[in-house]
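Cross-check.
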Amino acid sequence: MKVFISWSGDKSKAAAIALREWIQCVIQQVKPWVSEIDIAAGTRWGREIETELNDTKFGIICLTKSNTFAPWILFEAGALAKTIDKDTYVCPYLIDMEPSDIPQGPLTQFQAKRSDEQGTWELVQTINEALKDNRLKESSLRTIFEKLWQDLEKILKELPDENVEDTEDRNPEDMIKEILEGVRQLLRTKEIESAVEETLSTLTGLSGTEGLGDGPVSRALKKHDPYLGLRGFFPNLGKKAD
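Predicted model, tokenized:
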């Protein structure tokens, strides 16, 4: 079972990477996925993340006080919410914050868990239950959890500090505009990829790839990879921003 772990910001990212390694040690039947680690260099990140979101059965959102309005968090949370059915689970994992710190909005629809021992145990239990027939016996799961919890706890206590902007002093209208602009940027990248893919497909059908040299368009045509072509002109296109 795939477990999609969402993050935004250095502290959230460090927690996501730690969770990825730790969860797989506790429950070996799951396959945690974190974008920073699991997207190969050169892969079209927008398409890759969309695929992972569509295939996931369990989503964990590493939430901190500074990223509750981050466009990337809200974008992935929204995508996870679209996949929700009786067999899909989404859980915000609270890093140095309480459930009451989550602002009113899309994230409040999910049942959050604190990143302390009890909250993490409840998260692990929920992941295990989602495995259904492949789940571990709770007594076995508890034994493994108790042996490994201190490893994760140590990492969580040493997470990097971050500057937390007081969102209460910000104009709500400005925050909404910021979120919408971030989502628009993500959608623009996806639309560009789709348009270029269609163009490359047409060019391939009309002329083939012989005689085009070895430039970015030629390489994209030969591999039928629009993102490769885009990166030839825009090296930073598609890089994930916090």
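The mean pLDDT is 75. The chain has two domains: 2-157, 173-233. Passed to J.P. for a second look.
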